Each structure stands twice: as C-alpha cells, then as structure tokens.
UniProtKB/TrEMBL annotation:
Its cofactor is Mg(2+). Pathway: Cofactor biosynthesis; adenosylcobalamin biosynthesis; adenosylcobalamin from cob(II)yrinate a,c-diamide: step 7/7. This is Adenosylcobinamide-GDP ribazoletransferase. GO terms for molecular function: adenosylcobinamide-GDP ribazoletransferase activity; cobalamin 5'-phosphate synthase activity.
C-alpha cells in the first residue's frame, strides 16, 4: 500500500504542478505502481476542478463568465502545461506531413512551429467555449462529469502506454513503459466500476453516462489505430496529446449533453 501511494505521488510530481518537496524512488516497482494509479491521479485532478467550480459558483459574486474562466485556467495551471506541450509537439509533427522518422525528429525539437501554436489556440479556445456553455446551468451531474474527464483521459493514457509499442527508447513514455506490462492494467476496470456504480445509483441518467463513457473508448480506439501509423508508436508527446485530445472530446461531449439531453 505504501508503494501504491508513492506511485501516486510520483504521478503528482510528473504530471501536475503541485509542489512536492521530497524525492521519491524511481525503481521499476514504484513506476509500475505509478502506471496503476494514472486513473486515480485523474480523479484527484477532477475532484479539484469540481470542488473549485462549486466554491466559485456558490460562494462568490463572480459572473458566469468569470466562473468559467477560473475553471478553464485551473485546467491549465494544475498540470503545469505538460500535456499541452505534447499536444503542440505532436501537432507540429503530424501537420508536417513527413515520414515517421522526420516526425519523431520534429517532436524532439524544442522549438515550436506555427502548427503547434495554432493547434493550441484552437484547443484552448474550444475548451473555454465548452466549459462556459456546459456550466451555464450547473447541475449535480455536471460536477460528476467534470470529475470524470481527467479520470477517463488518464485511463486512456495508461492503456495506450502499455498496449502500443514505444517509438523510441528514451523519454518519459519509454521510462514508464519499461517498468510495467499490460497485465498491470487489471485494476483499471475496477476503478471504472468504482466510479460508475455510485454515479448510476445516485443520478440514474444512464443515457448521458453511457455516452460519456463511449467518448473516451472511441478516443482510445482512434489513438491506438493511428499512433503506429503516424509516429511509429507512442512517445511522451503522443501520450500528452492523447490526454489533451481525449479531454477535448469529453468536454465537447458534456457541452453537447447539456444542449440535447439534459436541457
């Protein structure tokens, strides 16, 4: 259990901007536990987002625009932009329309190209729109969905990490992949059931929850199918882009559900 908790803290150090002023062991056993706790990290992030929305929405005089902006900004600051960096690098590589080897070189280049900047602007602009309109009329299920967005995106990241070969033998993706095998993913379905069961009991909006779960499943299928084709496998940047892309689809799903299902 201690190793499990340390694995979670490793994730906090790598994937959030939370200040943890102590060293953690980076051996294979602890990195394996880190992979197993990817979804828990996402649930932790989602709980922060939902809690922040509740506090700002219920206990401040801020306008709805300001409330949406605070939540939007939190999604950037809490992660320290680590996944956004992967989104930009992967976008530069993909839109270069070069072969796989050249794309890997582009992702490794510390400079950001025009396509990376444009893709970031589009991503964050759309996210703000989705957050703003999905939280106009905040309902109980809205908080659940917000908690679920990073939970599901980190689940997709973990599955992709261990079921698609690495494109190179260096970097963050290779570090985690070398420490774990696909069999450690046995715990992911338990997380999903643990998340969904109380949600279904409390809310009983099976249609909305079902669509919300199908969205990241589609993202996983899409990314697994194209990671090898476009990049020769997964890298840290590809995983970061996957997280951002999955969360983009999930925010859009929540936005559409508020319009056409929960309106």
């Amino acid at each position: 259990m201690i190793k499990f908790f340390k694995g979670f803290l490793i994730n906090c150090q790598f994937f959030t901007a939370l200040p943890l002023p102590f060293e953690l062991p980076m051996d294979k056993e602890h990195l394996r536990k880190a992979v197993q706790t990817f979804p828990l990290l996402g649930l932790f992030q989602g709980a922060i987002y939902a809690g922040l929305l509740y506090v700002v929405h219920e206990f401040t005089p801020f306008s709805h625009l300001a409330v949406a902006f605070v939540l939007w900004l939190a999604t950037i600051l809490l992660t320290g932009g680590i996944h956004l960096d992967g989104w930009m690098d992967a976008s530069d590589a993909y839109f270069s329309y070069q072969n796989v080897e050249k794309r890997l070189e582009i992702m490794k280049d510390p400079r950001t190209g025009a396509f990376g900047v444009l893709s970031l602007v589009v991503l964050l602009s759309c996210r703000f729109l989705f957050i703003y309109e999905a939280t106009v009329n905040v309902e109980y299920i809205t908080y659940i969905f917000i908690m679920g967005i990073p939970f599901l995106s980190k689940t997709v990241m973990g599955v992709l990490l261990l079921t698609v070969k690495s494109a190179k033998n260096e970097g963050l993706g290779s570090l985690f992949q070398s420490a774990a095998k696909p069999k450690v993913l046995w715990i992911y379905p338990l997380y999903l059931v643990g998340f969904l069961f109380p949600v279904m009991v409390m809310i009983k909006d099976y249609y909305s929850v079902g669509l919300f779960i199908l969205a990241p499943a589609g993202c996983l299928f899409f990314c697994r199918r194209n990671a090898l084709k476009w990049f020769g496998g997964i890298t840290g940047d590809v995983l970061g882009a996957t997280v951002e892309g999955t969360e983009f689809i999930l925010w859009m799903t929540v936005w559409l559900l508020h319009y056409f299902v929960m309106a």
